[in-house]
Write a structure and sequence with these properties.
This protein has two domains: about 220 residues, Carbamate kinase (3-Layer(aba) Sandwich); about 170 residues, VC0802-like. By secondary structure, it is of the alpha/beta class. Helix 1 crosses helix 4 and helix 13 packs across helix 14. The chain has 14 helices and 20 strands. It binds adenosine-5'-diphosphate, aspartic acid (ASP) and magnesium ion (MG). Aspartic acid (ASP) binds next to helix 7.
Length: about 425
């Protein structure tokens, strides 16, 4: 018998029929004698619909009220799933984040989980019931509802698995694993049977939304065995035997393995949410970077890539990127609080940019990855606007219109294409 935490995303919970299918899968695991905790997202489109309602009232809704409202999508889906499981003759109980309780800090809209009380869940499991938990939400020390940021149900799933000491956390979604790149961008993307936490963390932080970054951080920190797999597969599951362990979905592993054939690049991530700001003609003297960036950071806006040009005639151009959702706010701050103080000539902005990144632990031991990347982009007439690197990744900022071309050509150049070129993902 194993204790399994399963998380089902919005598409997997997207209709009554799909919820009934999830219930059948949960029952199969339960019938095999496993204890099952299910974490679910809101039905697909529901969270967007709720956010849209709030934004019709205020451009920047009150964070507490926003969480109070946007968390309701998950409350609907937990109860529907618990009903569907009971209809199949299996005992089930649904709980909101507050009922459990999933304790978080008070940073509304992107709260962090601090502690989970597992007694209530454990009691239900011991009584032979399936426990259905609302993803994406928690409760703070004031007894107010908080939410964990978009895609946060992944993090609820992993955190529940860590708190319960589960044998595995299974993230069921609309693709059957983690691919070398988003299979929606190239049919030649290949499914990875395993990927290291370190690489998955980079992929997630560089834009691969298949897992929320915090969920990967959590899984790495608490060593939760984590697997991504499809809720649409009718294949064999429910047994958790060696066959399942070795063959299904993508396993996120700690082990880098001693595979001599370790590829240099494991995957290509991209992020469409970038926006670039260029502060032109600023005097080039000590303190200028801080004068530009401190007011932005003080407003809690995350800065991503940074570039300072060589100075000519004592002035320089200073460029950086922020998330598109924070772009207007960053521009307001620069125009109203910074521009005149630092004597900048002009503030230029461009939101039609994307970041494309190569990720791979194999990069550590291979030189020449960057030069190959730049050469491939040059051959495709794609201009690089900014570059950033770390030990296991190289990112470039390019025009949005070249995203697909860049990903496809890099995918081929780094030997990531699947041989038959056919998509493995049904419906894509
Ligand atoms: P869910 O609603 O189940 O949480 P998401 O939409 O958040 O699902 O994540 C699944 C999606 O992630 C896939 O449909 C796919 O388009 C996208 N994705 C991005 N990068 C990758 C990747 N490297 N491998 C697999 N899927 C990816
Ligand atoms: N429903 C939330 C969202 O759409 C959380 C999640 O699906 O993980 O972001
Ligand atoms: Mg998701």
């Amino acid at each position: 018998m194993a204790l399994i935490v399963q998380k089902y995303g919005g598409t997997s919970m997207g209709s009554i029929d799909r919820i009934k299918n999830v219930a059948k899968r949960v029952k199969r695991w339960h019938d095999h004698g496993h204890q099952v905790v299910v974490v679910v997202s809101a039905m697909s489109g529901e969270t967007n619909r709720l956010i849209d309602l709030a934004q019709q009232i205020s451009k920047q809704p009150d964070p507490r009220e926003y969480d109070q409202m946007v968390s309701t999508g998950e409350q609907v889906s937990i109860s529907l799933l618990a009903m569907a499981i009971k209809e199949l003759g299996v005992g089930a109980r649904s709980f909101t984040g507050r009922q459990i309780a999933i304790h978080t800090d008070s940073t509304h809209n992107k709260a962090r989980i601090e502690k989970i009380d597992v007694q209530r869940v454990q009691q239900q499991l011991d009584a032979g019931n399936v426990v259905v938990v609302a993803g994406f939400q928690g409760v703070n020390s004031e007894d107010d509802i908080t939410t964990l940021g978009r895609g946060g149900s992944d993090t609820t799933g992993v955190a529940m698995a860590a708190a319960l000491g589960a044998d595995e956390c299974q993230i069921y979604t609309d693709v059957d694993g983690v691919y070398t790149t988003d299979p929606r961008v190239t049919a030649k993307a290949r499914k990875l049977s395993k990927i290291t936490f370190e690489e998955m963390l980079e992929m997630a932080s560089l834009g691969s939304k298949v897992l929320q970054i915090r969920s990967v951080e959590f899984a790495g920190k608490y060593q939760v065995p984590l697997r991504v797999l499809s809720s649409f597969d009718e294949g064999k599951d429910g047994s958790f035997d060696d066959d399942f362990k070795n063959n299904v979905g993508t396993l996120i592993t700690i082990d880098e393995g001693d595979d001599m054939e370790q590829p240099v690049i494991s995957g290509i991530a991209f992020n469409r949410d970038e926006a670039k700001i260029v502060v032109r003609g600023v005097p080039d003297h000590p303190g200028i970077a801080s004068a530009i960036l401190t007011p932005i950071s003080n407003a809690n806006i995350e800065i991503d890539m940074i570039l300072q040009n060589l100075s000519t005639n004592g002035t320089t151009d200073f460029s950086f990127t922020v998330n598109r959702t924070e772009f207007d706010r960053a521009l307001d701050i620069l125009n109203n609080e910074v521009k005149d103080d630092i004597n900048a000539k002009e503030i230029h902005s461009d939101s039609n940019v994307v970041k494309v990144s190569l990720v791979g632990v194999g990069m550590r031991s291979h030189a020449g990855v960057a030069s190959t990347m730049f050469q491939v982009l040059a051959e495709n007439n794609i201009n690089i606007q900014m570059i950033s690197t770390s030990e296991i990744k190289i990112s470039v900022l390019i025009k949005e219109q070249y995203l697909e071309k860049a990903v496809k050509s890099l995918h081929t150049a780094f030997g990531l294409d699947r041989e038959d070129g056919e998509s493995q993902v049904a419906g894509l």
